Amino acid sequence: xxxxxxxxxxxxxxxxxxxxxxxxxxxxxxxxxxxxxxxxxxxxxxxxxxxxxxxxxxxxxxxxxxxxxxxxxxxxxxxxxxxxxxxxxxxxxxxxxxxxxxxxxxxxxxxxxxxxxxxxxxxxxxxxxxxxxxxxxxxxxxxxxxxxxxxxxxxxxxxxxxxxxxxxxxxxxxxxxxxxxxxxxxxxxxxxxxxxxxxxxxxxxxxxxxxxxxxxxxxxxxxxxxxxxxxxxxxxxxxxxxxxxxxxxxxxxxxxxxxxxxxxxxxxxxxxxxxxxxxxxxxxxxxxxxxxxxxxxxxxxxxxx
Length: 305
Known about the structure:
Blueprint: H1 4-8, E1 15-18, H2 22-33, E2 38-41, H3 49-53, E3 57-58, H4 62-68, E4 71-74, H5 79-86, E5 95-98, H6 104-116, E6 120-127, E7 141-146, H7 148-158, E8 163-166, H8 173-199, H9 207-221, H10 224-234, H11 245-261, H12 270-281, H13 291-301
Parallel strand pairs: 1-2, 1-4, 2-3, 4-5, 5-6, 7-8
Antiparallel strand pairs: 6-7
Helix pairs in contact: 11-12
């Protein structure tokens, strides 16, 4: 006998997905696996054929894909592609979710653009690579920002391929969170690259041997992020500081001299070190690293790049 809860369970939400690159295809397969009726479209029709064989409906045009479902997800090349793809499509009453990589300003403009055309809008920043999609234990997720009611309405559907995290009504916040985290990752891997370069000439130290202490050290140092955030909120950049900026800046000489000895360029490190030196010269040697945040913003305001 079928239970009452089964009878009352809502059917998986139908949706349309426009854009079938590696990420779009991974999302499509995850939605199909979760039982969602799915319409797909791609500028190159051949990319939709494997998904059609797996149960997706293949739309002949972007406009047809938009018309096929109330929930429309975009995973395209760039913001310009969004405008081009949706030109001529009737967006009235549609729930538009844009997972195309963008900037905060472009996301806010696209939200206004969608509203003018009668659509509700969410922007998304994907914090995952395609192999993480549909694999909950991989830890991937998407930041969403914009219409809160729209997120609440579709949170279960949006969370089927990867986790869904709402970060506010400002449509630009998902892109900002996305780029901020990717920027942190870029800086981290700059340091990782420099560290491996230092060790490269040591034939008796295998890269795989060095990787374990390197990863462990970075995990340990990640614990400092919360303290830095508290300093930024309180405005007291000396609170809880163990190694102050003057000490760290002085120690940078050893880092650069070691690079010279190992035959490695210091170009990945010197911009950050220069910021430390400037902050110390401004009389803030007793601070931690939080003051560099203000220094970066002041430099941008002054037109320094």
